[in-house]
Amino acid sequence: LAPGGAIRGTVHNRQGAPLSSAVLQLRRPDGEPLALPPTHTQTHADEVGSYRFEGLEPGEYEVIAVVEGYSAGRTRVMVVAGQTAVADPQAGDWACLRIRVTTPSGTRVSGFVVGVRDSEGRLWDRTMHTGSDPSDGWGYYPGSETDGKWSTWGGLAPGRYSGEVEWDGRRVPFEAELEAGRTTDVQLVIP
Q1: Contacts 24+ apart (CB under 8 A), 59-62
Q2: pLDDT tens digit sequence for 68-113
Q3: Interatomic CA distance for residues 52 and 47, integer angstroms
Q4: 86 and 170 Cβ atoms separated by less than 8 Å
């Protein structure tokens, strides 16, 4: 990558303690992925919760800290060429959204795409559930694991979410109220 700006920071919980187990993701604030290799858009916090992204084009970015047992911390930051911006995401209470999609006959569907927005309209993710085990049929938002199921990667913040599931050119909207410390199941039927 050509020289550019950088982002550094430290991930904390709500009490201010650093979180060394955080995975940091970098993307545009509109939720669109960056045209960079994964090695430049994801990193891990060190033993004191610190992280750094380098070689970034100038512009606005969103840093997302994902920590098991917490909701994802999100921070927006402006990157200027030749400078290092500071973004300290804070992970909070967690909640989990789990989605199951079936056909009208009850057959569980894999290969569906889920888009999820919070109550402020921010796109949390638009990810495909590959479902290597269609007999299971549950999708955990966000982040596909190697077995094809989705996991929460530390969860979502409690609150109201809306979204849409798309499969085979058909779409079904949904809404869900997520409670702290709980998994909310959403069952959808694709016509």
Answers
A1: 59/28, 60/28, 60/29, 61/7, 61/26, 61/27, 61/28, 61/29, 61/87, 62/26, 62/27, 62/28, 62/29
A2: 777 778 899 999 999 999 999 988 877 777 777 788 988 877 777 7
A3: 13
A4: no
